[in-house]
Structures are given as C-alpha cells and as structure tokens.
UniProtKB/TrEMBL annotation:
<dbReference type="GO" id="GO:0046872">
    <property type="term" value="F:metal ion binding"/>
</dbReference>
<dbReference type="InterPro" id="IPR039650">
    <property type="entry name" value="HdrA-like"/>
</dbReference>
<keyword id="KW-0732">Signal</keyword>
<feature type="signal peptide">
    <location>
        <begin position="1"/>
        <end position="16"/>
    </location>
</feature>
<keyword id="KW-0560">Oxidoreductase</keyword>
<keyword id="KW-0411">Iron-sulfur</keyword>
<dbReference type="Pfam" id="PF12831">
    <property type="entry name" value="FAD_oxidored"/>
</dbReference>
<keyword id="KW-0004">4Fe-4S</keyword>
<keyword id="KW-0408">Iron</keyword>
<dbReference type="GO" id="GO:0016491">
    <property type="term" value="F:oxidoreductase activity"/>
</dbReference>
<dbReference type="InterPro" id="IPR036188">
    <property type="entry name" value="FAD/NAD-bd_sf"/>
</dbReference>
<dbReference type="GO" id="GO:0051539">
    <property type="term" value="F:4 iron, 4 sulfur cluster binding"/>
</dbReference>
<protein>
    <submittedName>
        <fullName>FAD-dependent oxidoreductase</fullName>
    </submittedName>
</protein>
<keyword id="KW-0479">Metal-binding</keyword>
Length: 552
C-alpha cells in the first residue's frame, strides 16, 4: 500500500511538471511578444499569466500609445499596430496602422496572435511567492506556481512589471533613484527644480489650524542629486466615454471621504482665480482620443490621478501588500473623479463637463468597467553587466548589439509631494527631457553571466532610473520581447548561454522580421513591407469600425 502511494504521488508530480523550450512569465506586452517570437522560431513555448488578462497596459487602459518617433518602431511591435489597423479597416482612410486601439480590441488581437503562433497560454498561474524558482548552478531549471504546477524549460523570461521571477533567481537588481554620482547622470536623484505637473500657484500646505493637508507628505524633500528609494507615481489609465448609450456614471469608491481632496478643492479655486476661468477636464486629466467615442485619461497638473508617494512599498512588497497598494490607488482615483463630478466646491463648468463622461459599458466588463491593470511605471530594475544610463539616450546613442530603438522623452512622473521652505505645497521628481532616437542594446536583457545564464528580462531590464524613464514605453517592451524570443532560440540551438549568443545572427533575424535599427521612415517602410507579406491578402475577420456611430 505504501509503495502504491509513493508511485501515485510520483505520477501526480510528473503530471504536474511540464517541459518547454521557453517559459515566459507575465502576459504583459513584452511577455506576449517574447512568447510569439519564440514560438515562431519553433520553440515549444508557454506563457504563464498570474491573472487573467493579456497585454499589460496596452490592453489595460494605455490606449493612447506613447510612440515617440513612430518611424523607429518596427518588428513585432509594428506588426501589432498593423494588425490593429486591419481590425479597424484603416485602409478605408488610406492608412495602415492604428496606434491607439481600444483595450478590448488590443487584448483580442494579442490572444489571436498567441494562438496563431502555437503558444500555450496558461492563466491564473502566479509564481509561488517565497520558493517559486529552482536553480542548478547558474541556470534556472524550474519554476513553481501557486496552484502547484511545475514548469521546466531551457530558457525562462520574466516579463512582469514587478520582476518576481528575476528576484527569486538571485539576479542583482535595484529600485528607486540613483544619485548623480553613481553613473554621472545630470538628471539623476532628487530634483532641485521640478517644472512639469507642478502647482502653478502657491497653495499653503497646512489648513487654517496648522494641520497638514491630506495627500501632502511631512517628509523633507532631500538634497538635490542624491539617491533614494522613492518610486515614480502610479495611476490607472482610465478609459472614459461621452457616448450616452455606452456611458456609466463615475463610481463612488469604498470609504469615500471628500475631505481627502481638500488640496484639490483649494487648487481648483486658486487656478480659477489665476486663470480667470475654471480649469477644464483636459487640464486635470490629459485626454488622448481613441476610437468609438472614447478617451484614454492620464494625469495632468499639480493634483491629478497620479497617486504621488503611495507606492514606495510596491517593488519589494508581498502579494498581499501589493494588492493593498493596488486597491488604495483604485479608491483614490475613483474618488478623484467622483469628487470632480459631485462635490459642490468644484466649479460648475468643470463639474458639468466631468459628468458628461463616464466609464464605458463595453470595456473591462469583468472588473466593473475599471481598468484591469495598475500602471506600474517602474518597479525593480535589473543590474546586468551593462546598465543603460543617461548618456545612452543622449550622446552614445549607437550600439554594436542593437536590437531596436527608443525615442520617447526621458519621462519620470513625480515621486513626492512635500512642504517647501516657504510653507507651500510642491511636487518633486518629474522629468521631461527630449531625446533623439537611440539604439537599445541586447545586453540590457540579460543578467550578469556569473549569476544566471538562461534568463531574459524584457521589462525590468538593466537600466538606471533615468534611462528606464524613456525605455519603459509599451512599444519598446514589445521590441525587447521580439528580440528575447529569437535570442532564446539561438541560445538553445547553439548550446550557448544567453550572454554568448551570436548577436549578428540575432540582428539579421530581427531585420528579416521587420525590426528597425536606424531612424527614418524608409527603414520602417522596409519593415512594413515584410509585415504585409505575412498578412497578404489582409484578413477581414471581425473588423471593428473606427466610429461605430458613423458606421450605423
């Protein structure tokens, strides 16, 4: 009987253990791209998603894509936006690309592409929190999820925003801001002056009784240029609509207390006096127009949807601690909109405008029409043999191991709201510095060879806070994922570590699949020509009108 039980347990363990060439953890844009890319190279590939949605921020509310210079986006990233253009039948408007797909459309496209590539997609597979990674020497051999499933692979990729697989693999990483002295970055560390998303008028940080206003920190700013462990603000990229038949009213959050928005009320009053008119909705929540009567709403101004200073524990937090931070962000931002729509201290013109919008009935139907992804703009960052820094965006912009390009501003959101020397409220940390198109090196994807030799990290990649602030855009995540999938195949077939793959061969394969290594529309057009061949003639399955109202 005892022997029978031993055999039964062994059989159950073997059944739970699954073997793949490539296992990708995290269904973000990078995870989607890594999995599709690897599968197209012939690898037996699994994509494990901790929750139940694919696409990360691309399908989680960030529809107003941060493209920067569009002509530097190529490869699988460009292919996704080409597929979106087909879905919306953009050829009717003499266009091929749709850069701002609705969340539901984006996720549908990604699921289609995963299925077409033959990727095994497994949802609700979250890495076991404390001991989910097994290693032998310098190789990760197995990961274990909370449901007991075990996955062995030749190559693993951590494509999560948090980098939990990377961290459990004992890879060196950091979080927060480096000081100026660490890498010689003039933009690094605490900022002496923060101009963007700042209070345009002086507002006392304390009320008439001398009590600190809610959402203002009592902690000192810190010395300019010094390092800290603060994290740039998170928010939700809320999708809104003013189409009456598709609009739901702004929800009232759990435990709503209008007093927490006292600073917002005073800000609106002061701005009305300063401007000679009330601010409009676009001035407190940046509008990005997307198809079918919808907006992607972002932060804007001194007090906005960015929940400044309330995410410091997220990168290293337990699952329970992160869930609490996530819920706090949701309640804060729901309260922000509810306050604007209902509080009597809000100017009537602004209140009427906010009330004309609401959450769309046809998006995020399993999460109460609220975005299913918190915008984790930055969490952990790997420290590899090569770390991208400010100079790699500004002065040393070409790389021998280029795998794609970036071009978006150095863009870090505010990290703290404090009381300045004059007693007024001040935000700190926002960075908005333009860059010229730059090449992204393969080396940012891999850990130090002495640490792990079969792990790719296309989201929490090796970069300083300042470099990451530009490289962190969703199209670039897909560009990095595209390269990661091919790199995995080269390492497996060549019997090499990921650090020792044939980089020229990687670059050739990427170019053959439409990647762009040089800025210029002619290079993107070459990539588009490659992509057109894959989808010629263009499929017409399930087209979505750009504007359903016009299509009626």
């Amino acid at each position: 009987m005892r022997m029978f039980l031993v055999l039964l347990l062994a059989a159950a363990s073997a059944a739970a253990q699954q073997q793949y060439d490539l296992v990708v953890y995290g269904g973000t844009a990078a995870g989607f791209a890594t999995a599709v890319s690897g599968a197209r190279q012939g690898l037996k590939t699994a994509l494990l998603e901790p929750r139940n949605h694919i696409g990360g921020m691309i399908s989680g509310g960030l529809s107003g894509t941060d493209v920067g210079r569009r002509e530097v986006i190529g490869g699988l990233s460009l292919e996704f936006y080409y597929r979106a253009g087909q879905r919306y039948q953009m050829d009717r408007h003499l266009q091929e690309l749709s850069w701002m797909p609705e969340p539901g459309v984006a996720e549908s496209l990604m699921r289609e592409m995963l299925k077409e590539a033959g990727v095994t997609l497994l949802e609700h597979h979250r890495l076991r929190e404390k001991d989910g990674v097994k290693r032998e020497g310098s190789r990760v051999t197995e990961i274990v999820t909370e449901n007991g499933a075990r996955f062995r692979a030749k190559v693993f990729a951590d494509a999560t925003y948090e980098g939990d697989l990377m961290a459990q693999s004992k890879v060196t990483y950091t979080y927060g801001r480096e000081g100026i002295s660490q890498y010689g970055e003039s933009l690094a560390g605490v900022r002496a002056v923060t101009e963007s998303h700042q209070f345009a008028v002086d507002i006392p940080a304390r009320d008439e009784q001398g009590k600190l206003l809610p959402e203002v920190s009592a902690e000192p700013r810190g010395e300019p240029g010094t390092a800290d462990k603060r994290i740039q603000a998170y928010n939700f990229r809320v999708i809104a609509t003013n189409v009456p038949e598709n609009r739901l009213p702004w929800p009232k959050p759990d435990g709503y207390d209008p007093k927490r928005y006292e600073l917002l009320a005073r800000y609106l009053t002061a701005m009305t006096k300063y401007m000679g008119r009330p601010v409009n909705f676009n001035e407190v929540g940046l509008f990005r127009i997307i198809p079918n009567g919808k907006l992607d709403l972002n932060n804007r101004g001194g007090f906005s949807t960015d929940y400044i200073g309330k995410n410091y524990g997220y990168p290293e937090g337990t699952y329970a601690e992160r869930a609490k931070i996530w819920k706090e962000h949701e309640d804060y931002q729901k309260g922000f909109y509810y306050f604007l729509a209902n509080d009597p201290r809000v100017p009537k013109e602004l209140q009427d405008e906010v009330r004309s919008y609401g959450l769309p009935k046809d998006e995020f139907q399993d999460t109460g029409h609220w975005p299913n992804q918190l915008y984790v703009r930055e969490a952990r960052r790997m420290v590899g043999e090569f770390v991208s820094t400010q100079k790699d965006l500004q002065t040393e912009r070409t790389k021998p191991d280029a795998i794609g390009m970036g071009s978006y501003n150095s863009d870090s959101h505010n990290l703290q709201r404090f009381v300045n020397a004059k007693g007024f409220v001040e935000n700190e940390g926002d960075v908005q510095v333009p860059v010229q198109p730059y090449q992204i090196p393969y080396r940012v994807l891999v850990p130090k060879k002495s640490e792990v030799t079969n792990l790719l990290v296309p989201v929490c990649f090796s970069a300083s806070h300042i470099a990451y602030s530009s490289m962190r855009m969703e199209p670039q995540y897909m560009i990095l994922g595209h390269a990661a999938g091919i790199a995995a195949a080269l390492a497996i077939r060549g019997g090499s570590t990921l650090q020792d793959i044939n980089v020229p061969e990687l670059q050739k394969k990427l170019k053959d699949e439409g990647a762009v290594f040089e800025a210029g529309i002619e290079f993107q057009n070459q990539g588009l020509a490659t992509i057109r061949k894959r989808y010629a003639p263009a499929p017409r399955k399930g087209p979505v009108p750009w504007d359903r109202r016009a299509a009626k």
